[in-house]
Design a protein that fits this description.
By secondary structure, the chain is of the alpha+beta class. It contains 25 helices and 15 strands. Helix 14 (300-309) runs antiparallel to helix 16, helix 18 packs antiparallel against helix 19 (399-422) and helix 19 crosses helix 21. The termini are far apart. One of its GO terms (molecular function) is RNA binding.
Length: 575
């Protein structure tokens, strides 16, 4: 390894953070671990793994003895067998992977992947159309996803509609990998070879359509499903080095089903060589997709605990090199602690309060809440929030996702400053109100409404998300007894009270309020011949006035504007 190369430097930096053997110190501000009161919720300071074992165990999933097909599945499989019989193909049709696992668990699954033992998927789709033509039925279009090693797509997959359902077709395969390459040497394989090349034993099961039977060719897939174990068919380090993304898939399925990770698997996942391979050999898009599935899944916190416990946090959530304040040891544990607290209070408030997208971004925002005031300097000497870097660069998610998380962090800070007023009957005094306008003359009884309304206009329909997130940073008085649940209850109470105040103030759709006067009317009052920044300035001032006077008419707004302009003209003359 060339220790002077940029990639080597990044790996060495990562290893120092992940192994806890080094601490970052500099003459600049150090990002210290917050206290209980700063965090707003307790953090035990123990390793992340303790959080996993401390989680409430869910009942084990019941594994069925047979697969019950839906009417649509029976129709699809009968049609495929008709093709084989009519054209005398001597082909074994097997449904592979997740569909078999989910059906044995009694769950619906609509992703049907057919593995073929003696032809390519595209060839079989052409046979389907040949059968449809002979039966006088309409032929279907065939979509072929070509091999694309650069995008980690190493095998051609064909897709077509069978009985109005999209079905994927691929051949059974045996793969081997060259050193330092993700491009496999692929050949037709047996069903057993194909089963052993899969990521986990619970995903290696087949349903043989020809024999209507489940095939467990690794000899332990069904038992691991019953026992709740995440195990690889081959030695885990070998499996992970073949495709390091399998580490994250193991974590995702372990969290999703509340299954226990095999000890050898955990040891391999924590191996320096595997972590380095995950950072260097797997595209950030693939990493981001797996993380997004975890965050959007049913157990996002358990998944993040696993990532932290296996020392993969900094391999997944890579950080910029010049972040200020510097990020030191313990940041990963605290980030996971934040999402844990966020998840707990969300369960009490009710997930139905938010849309799926709002819930997803709420959890991302909570995970990186600790980094809300940390930024780095990009190549154009621009300060960029570290949370933006992680979402855009580390995970390669949408730009809108990064922008919304950053906006949520900004809104959280503003909500925190509003809590003293929103949680009490007192109105903010003028010295506490920064409206950046000396001519507004907002009545004291309206200041709370104006401040809250301006915040909602910035964050729009995500204001409840920001409000709930801000409760995580609200200091809670010392609680005796079951502090974890009681603190979550207290945060729910804060959220509910402030939400009620905002809705009682009639601000729920404050971002939809338009200025009562258009640009032409403003120009008439100001006696201007053309537009410009002054028009925008008065429109912003007008919104503040309207928030203070929600029932005002356009005529009243016109009169107010004339009076304000007159005051300003007099002051300018005196000056």
């Amino acid at each position: 390894m060339d220790l002077n190369s940029p990639s080597s430097a990044k790996l060495l930096t990562f290893r120092r953070i992940a192994s806890h053997r080094f601490c970052f110190l500099s003459t600049q501000t150090i990002f210290s671990i917050p206290s209980r009161r700063t965090l707003g919720f307790p953090f035990s300071g123990v390793r992340c793994g303790a959080g996993v074992s401390a989680m409430v165990a869910e009942p084990r999933l019941v594994v069925k003895d047979r697969i019950d097909l839906t009417e649509n599945e029976e129709t699809i499989f009968r049609r495929l067998l008709d093709v084989v019989d009519h054209l005398k193909l001597n082909t074994q049709l097997r449904v592979a992977g997740g569909w078999v696992r989910d059906k044995l668990l009694g769950k619906d699954c609509y992703d049907i992947d057919i593995a073929l033992d003696n032809m390519l998927g595209r060839e079989f789709c052409e046979k389907v159309n040949e059968y449809l033509h002979s039966a006088g039925e309409e032929q279907q279009g065939i979509g072929v996803i070509q091999c694309n090693p650069d995008q980690s797509k190493h095998l051609e997959t064909a897709r077509m509609r069978i009985c109005s359902t999209w079905v994927d077709f691929v051949n059974l395969r045996s793969e081997s990998y060259a050193e330092n390459s993700r491009i496999p040497k692929m050949k037709f394989g047996t069903a057993k070879e194909d089963a052993y090349r899969r990521d986990l034993t619970i995903n290696s099961l087949f349903y043989n359509i020809n024999t209507t039977s489940v095939e467990d060719l690794t000899g332990r897939g069904i038992q691991d499903l019953k026992d709740g174990y995440i195990v690889t068919p081959l030695p885990p380090k070998e499996t992970f080095l073949d495709d390091p993304l399998r580490v994250l898939r193991a974590i995702r399925f372990g969290a999703r089903f509340n299954f226990k990770l095999n000890e050898d698997l955990k040891e391999a996942a924590s191996d320096d060589e595997v972590r380095d391979a995950l950072m260097c050999k797997i595209s950030r898009e693939r990493v981001g997709h797996e993380i997004d599935l975890m965050i959007s899944g049913n157990q996002p916190v358990r998944a993040m605990f696993y990532i932290c416990d296996l020392q993969l946090f900094y391999a997944v959530f890579t950080l910029p090199e010049n972040a200020q304040p510097e990020i030191v040891e313990g940041c990963n544990r605290l980030c996971v602690s934040h999402i844990d607290a966020a998840w707990n209070v969300l369960q009490l408030v009710g997930c139905s309060t938010f849309s799926d997208e709002q819930r997803r971004l709420y959890l991302y925002g909570a995970l990186f809440l600790l980094l809300r005031n940390t930024a780095y300097t990009d190549t154009k000497s621009k300060k960029i929030p570290v949370a933006n870097f992680i979402i855009r660069n580390s995970l390669k998610l949408k730009a809108n996702d990064a922008e919304m998380v950053v906006s949520l962090h900004v809104a959280v800070e503003r909500f925190i400053s509003l809590f003293p007023f929103m949680e009490s009957d007192r109105e903010p005094v003028l010295a506490e109100v920064n409206l950046d306008d000396e001519f507004l003359d907002i009545p004291p009884t309206s200041r709370k409404r104006v401040l809250a309304g301006l915040l909602l206009r910035e964050i729009k329909s995500f204001w409840r998300v920001a409000l709930l997130m801000s409760t995580l940073l609200r200091p809670i008085d010392e609680i005796v007894g079951d502090s974890r649940n009681k603190e979550s209850e207290r945060r729910k109470e804060i959220f509910t009270n402030v939400e009620r105040i905002i809705t009682d103030l009639g601000l729920d759709n404050a971002w939809e309020v338009k200025p009562l006067l258009d640009g032409k009317a403003i120009m008439a009052v100001l006696q201007l011949k053309g537009g410009g920044p002054l028009i925008r300035e008065w429109q912003q001032r007008m919104i503040k006035w309207q928030l203070a006077h929600p029932n005002a008419t356009a005529e009243e707004c016109f009169d107010w504007m004339q009076q304000s302009q007159s005051k300003r003209a007099k002051l300018d003359c005196c000056a």
